[in-house]
Design a protein that fits this description.
Blueprint: E1 6-8, E2 24-31, E3 34-40, E4 52-57, E5 64-70, E6 82-91, E7 98-106, E8 113-119, E9 127-131, E10 133-134, E11 137-138, E12 144-148, E13 154-158, E14 163-166, E15 173-178, E16 185-193, E17 196-203, E18 213-217, E19 225-229, H1 236-239, E20 241-250, E21 253-262, H2 268-271, E22 273-278, E23 280-283, E24 286-288, E25 295-297, E26 302-303, E27 311-317, E28 323-330, E29 332-339, E30 345-352, E31 357-364, E32 371-377, E33 384-392, E34 398-400, E35 406-408, E36 414-422
Antiparallel strand pairs: 1-25, 2-3, 3-4, 4-5, 6-7, 7-8, 8-9, 10-11, 12-13, 13-14, 14-15, 16-17, 17-18, 18-19, 20-21, 21-22, 23-24, 25-26, 27-36, 28-33, 29-32, 29-36, 30-31, 30-33, 34-35
Length: 423
Amino acid sequence: MMNNAYFFNGVPWFDQNGETVNAHGACVLKEGNKYYLFGEYKTNDVNKFVGFSCYSSYNLSDWHFEVLALPPQEQGLLGPDRIGERVKVLKNHKTGTFVMLMHTDNLKYTDPCIGLATCDSIDGTFEFQGPLLFEGKPIRMWDMGTFVDENGTAYLLLHEGDIYRLSDDNLTAVEKVAENIAPGGESPAMFHHGDNYFMMFSNKTSWERNDNYYFVSNNLHGPWNEQGLFCPKGSLTYNSQCFFVFSLEADGKTVPLYMGDRWSFPRQASSATQVWLPITVVKEDKCSILEYWPVWASESISQVFLEGMDKPLPFRSNQRGDSVDYTFEGSQIIVYGISDCHGGYAEFSIYDDTGEFIHRTIIDFYSLVPDSSMKYVSPKLSHGSYTLKVGVMGENGVWFKKDGKQFGSDDYFVTLESIKVCT
C-alpha cells in the first residue's frame, strides 16, 4: 500500500471527490499544519478566467478542494472575457489579511494589469479590489510572481526582471527595487539562501517548455549575475516551467522546493500537470536540481522507488477509437508510457467488476523532449477487482503564439509500456 505522503510528479492529482486538482501558475502557503495551494482554475475549451482555486493538504499529496477563492467578476479587470493568471497569495502578518495578486488581461493579451484581492481567511472567498498601484498608477505588466523575505517584506516579481517592494500592508507597491534583470524572461520565481537571492525565469515560448535559467545577487537592488541553467541542458527543466519556490520544512531542515507547470493546451483542466522538486544550493551562489524524481517522500525529502514488479502493457496507436484493457486486483494502478512530439490525448477509464464506471481522466502523451515515465496514477480505490481501459482520442495539443508560430504535437500517438498494481 502506498504511503500517503508520497509525491508524484508529472501526473494528474485527484482531490477528495476524484476530480483533477486544477491549480496552475500557482503558489503554496502553510497555515498551521496545513498547506494551501492556490492556482488558475482552467477549462478544457477556452483560455479565459473562470476563477482561482484553493486546495488544502496535510502532506502535499492528498488534496482537498476548499473553495473557488476568487470567481469571475461581473465587470472590470476580471469580468467576462478576461484573463486571470499567475495567482499568488501572501499573508500579511501585521494585519492578518490574506492578499492575492494576479495578472489580469483581455483575451488578446493587449491590456495587462496586476490585480489585487483580499480576504480575512485563507480558505475564504477573496474580494477583488482592483489594480495594484505604484505612485498612484496601475502596474501594467503581465507574467508575475511574489517573494517574501525573512523580515516579512513582500515583493512583486515581473517578467523581464522588474522587482517592486510592497507596502507594509501589501496593498500597494512603494518602491521599484530593480528593473530589466532578465530581458526576454517570464514566469519569475525567487528564493533566499544564505547571503544570496536566487531568481528563476522561463524563456518566452508560450505554453511550450524550455530550459529555465536563474540569476543571483546578495542584494535585491543588484547587481544580478546570470548563472545559467539549473536543470540539465536540453531537459527543458524536466519538461516544466517555473512558477514558484516554496520553503519546505521537513526532516529538520528547510529546502527550497521548485514548483513548475506542465501545460497541456487546450486540455489544461484535465491534463496539465505539475513538477515539484527540491533545489540544491551547490555553492554559495549556484543552485541546481540534480535529478528528476518521479516519486518522492515529502516528510524526508528523498526519492522513493516503488515496490512491486512492473507488468508489460505494450500498446502504441494513433488511430481514434483504438484501445487496450487491463484487469487488475488491488487498490491503485500506475501506468508507464512514452510521451514525445508525436503524442496525443488518451482517455483513461476505470470500471469495477460489475462494469460500473468508477473514474475517468485524460492523459497527454505530448512532450517536445521524449520522456519515458509514469503517465497515470489512479485515485486510491477500495481493494477489489477493476478494469482499466485506455483509449486513443484522436486529439492532440496544438496552439499558436501571437505572431502565428505553431507549437505542439504533429500526431495522435498513445504509447504505453507497463503497469504497476498496488495492493
